[in-house]
Amino acid sequence: MFKPLAIALAISAAFPAIAAETTPNKVERITVTGSNIRVSQKAGATAVQVISAKEIAASGKTSVSEVIRSISANSGNSYNEQFTGSFSAGTSGVSLRGLGQKNTLVLINGKRISSYATAQNLQETFVDLNSLPMAAVQRIEILKDGASSVYGSDAVAGVVNIILYSEFKGTELSAELGSSTEGTGQTEKNFSIKTGFGDFNEDNFNVVFSLDGQKRDQLDQSDVSWIKEGDFRNQPGGSLNRTITNYYDGDPTRHIGGPQGPLQLTDYGSITNGKTGQVLAYNDASYSTLIPEVERYHAFARANLRINDDTQAYAEYLYGFSRANLTFGAPLTVSSTLRAWNNQKQALDTINNKLPVGHPNNPGTTPLDFTATLFDLGTRLKTDEVTLHRILSGVKGTALGWDWDASLGYSQSTLEETVQNFVNRYEYEKVLKDGSYNFADQSKNSEAVRNRLRLSTLRPAKSSLITADINASSAELFELPAGSVGFAAGAQFRQEKMDSRTSDAVLSGTELRPAINIIKGERKVTALFAEFNIPVIKDLNVNLAARADHYSDFGNAFSPKASARYQAADWLLLRGTASRGFRAPSLPEITQSSAVSYGSVIDPRDPISPTKSRGVTSIIAANSNLQPERSDNFNLGFVLSPTSDSSIGLDYYNIKQSGLIGTQSSADIIANESRDPSKIVRDEKGRISTLYRQYSNMGDRETSGIDLDLRQRFKSKDYGNLNLGSQISHVLRFAEPLSTGEPLTDGAGSNQFGSIPKWRAVSDATWEIGAWSTTLTWNYIGSYDQANPSENDTVKYVDSFNTFDLTASWKLAKDTTLTAKVLNLSNTRPPWDSSTDFFDHTQADPRGRFASAKLTYKF
């Protein structure tokens, strides 16, 4: 039995009933995420989770990313700054239903914002949550339902709508200082300022402004006590994590020199089962950053001006700056697979990496293959600086019973990535030829030679978005016997651009072993949409919506949606939706782009090691003939409200996708080499050096599950108020083909298609009494199976993960509040995962217990 479910059912959760809404007074109409029609019901036909500013403060989270990524529906395949080996280091995204960041649409105040400057995992475009202002957030609405009929592309899994303050009275200042328990303590500092002036009703204008900042230290693997040694032989499927280097002719037991710097003589069998002899190897923990050092600042300003009784103008500006510093990796290792980019050929040139006869490190009479790490050049370091700007202005009002809104917006994300201590290909070829670099004893190398070899690079990227939106709605278009028909219609134009370049050193062929993600393209999108809200009978409303999009690159997409809301009783709401959605091919997938990445394959035709994994290079190209991914979404649920202080919501979702965009797997390419040998390049020994891939519309995917939302409130004059809440998500199915043309394989509850635990839950209890407020939060991530366990993996699953967060606030005075928090109260370590280096960073983090204190002053 699922224990968190049983406990959550026992404690329920913290909101008044949202289904019983009868009142003798007129209820204010609001716009709910997922619809353009203003309605009076808080609970609609689709499930929307609302996180208020008060709840955010009680959670102890210090960034927009932490808040959104902690929800139970963020079930897998999303990344934050722990993903340091990517082209998007320091960023963070959200992946509802485990369908990837590209299938979750992130909005600011209901409108689109530019995606991050370059792509995640070469093809995913997404909104960087770390670039968004925490202090300005009034609430966050998460629509757990496909919404392409309203918003267009990318809303297949759902929508995250971040609502920023449009009005704020007074001034609020806060400062926070905290530290984690691992290593010497990863210190974090936060501050925020929020202010507003002007009363819209009395002064005909108002202005709100916020500023927040964060600085956090770097956390390396060598700082974390339980993983810094890299020795996991006591774990199922674990081994001694050491990198073998400095050897001749593919034989790690033929050493170049002896122990030097971090290199130590190590038993070969302790690293690789079945091997014998001694090798030179090093522990790369000190070269592995788990969480970067970050410095972030965000600013937000909004002004509203009344033009007349029925019309107002508004303008807003959002700014985000983020700098992430991290260790990119150990010093470069040179081997027979050493390459450089040939921009004219759009291919990689293999660099001759043999020790010539007469070289001080070549003991033989023929040129000799070798592998060596250039430790004396220093650790490779990376700095990513990201800047986000968004300007939006518009006019809205009412006329003849219609609400209307017209706006123009521009946003852009820019990246400047610098990397130090790469290696200059042309200087390397010179020192290799003339023997002036000593691989065996690098202490003998002159600083002049080292400086010739060292290379620093700059990689720029920019993504921009221009939007023009106009819409109008009426809650009372005309009357039917059961009530008023609501209607909304509108149009949208947007232009998307992305220019993600590589460094000049790569283009000139100067940089050795380059990783490349070049994207250059743009497109224009025009759309028309309409929506009807129809009262069929008393308490039964049907919503019909449709959207037609035209893309300048692939063509057209049509997205219909039908939903129903039935208030069966004051205490029971029934709801359901059926829709068709789409994800347009991203610019890296469909426009001019090329990427170079590195991985490993097992090649049965390898003349030397046909059963062992070997590193290869992949060159990936875009495809201008791509069509959008299509989806069919179905949702059904109810909200049960036994009392005005309790509710139980249960929703089932089912999403079927077709035409998923991807590349042929390495295994498929190798298995079909005889049919298409052009996709494989082999070296002079017959070993694979390069694989060529191109994006195409491939297989299908099916996912389904349930969301349970429990809320309960207890009120007492003597003992204060107790609010209980729990959001639980259960994945029933997550199925994809393992390779092209194969039937679907269910990966729910495994790491077959990224880690997709079947269960995820967040439960909280908030007690408020007098000047005190205390919140205890329980975060639960269920266990999941190892899809491809190693031979010596005696435990075939990854254990569940439980953490508890405690936040306590004390109102020192009318305007002053002191808040103390402890995240991961029990200092629980992430569960061991043999398929990764040690744990899955998409599900947990290595900081351990984190404690902080925050002072807030409002005047």
UniProtKB/TrEMBL annotation:
Localisation: Cell outer membrane
PANTHER family per record: PTHR47234, TONB-DEPENDENT RECEPTOR (PTHR47234:SF2)
The entry's keywords: Cell outer membrane, Membrane, Receptor, Signal, TonB box, Transmembrane, Transmembrane beta strand, Transport
Signal peptide residues on this chain, from the entry's feature table: 1-19
Domain TonB-dependent receptor-like beta-barrel: from-to ranges: 359-825
Homology family: Belongs to the TonB-dependent receptor family.
Topology within the bilayer: Multi-pass membrane protein
Main location per the UniProt record: membrane
Name of the protein: TonB-dependent receptor
Species of provenance: Iodobacter arcticus
Taxonomy, superkingdom: Bacteria
Keyword Transport: yes
TonB-dependent receptor plug domain residues: 44-159
